[in-house]
Design brief:
mainly alpha; rod-shaped; about 0% strand
Length: about 100
C-alpha cells in the first residue's frame, strides 16, 4: 500500500472532517437546498475556517504532521579538511647526511 497509515495524523484528519461537515451544514442551510450554491458556500466556508484555524494566532495547539516531527530535514554541509600539522623539527633539505654515500 503506497500510503503508510501509521504516518497519518488522525487528529488532524478528524479536525478537517469536522470543518467540512460544519461548512457543508451551514452551506446547505444558507442555500435553501440548491445544490450548486450549497457546494460553493461550503467550499468558501471551509477555506475561511481552515485559514482561521491554521494561520490566526489564537494560541490553540494545532495538530502537525507526524512525519515532520519524526524526521526533520537536515542539510549536509561539506567540511573543509583541516590544515595538516607541521612537525616540530621538519627536515627542509634533501641533501644526504655527511659520511653517507650512494
Amino acid at each position: 500500500m503506497p500510503i503508510d497509515l501509521g504516518q497519518v495524523d488522525w487528529v488532524y484528519v478528524a479536525v478537517l472532517a469536522v470543518f467540512v461537515f460544519v461548512a457543508n451544514l451551514v452551506g446547505n442551510l444558507l442555500s435553501f437546498n440548491r445544490r450548486g450554491l450549497a457546494a460553493v458556500l461550503a467550499a468558501v466556508l471551509f477555506a475561511a475556517i481552515f485559514v482561521y484555524w491554521t494561520y490566526y494566532p489564537h494560541g490553540l495547539p494545532l495538530p502537525t504532521s507526524i512525519a515532520a516531527q519524526k524526521s526533520p530535514v537536515t542539510t549536509v554541509v561539506p567540511v573543509a579538511p583541516p590544515t595538516p600539522q607541521r612537525p616540530n623539527n621538519p627536515v627542509t633539505d634533501i641533501t644526504p647526511a655527511p659520511g653517507t654515500s650512494r
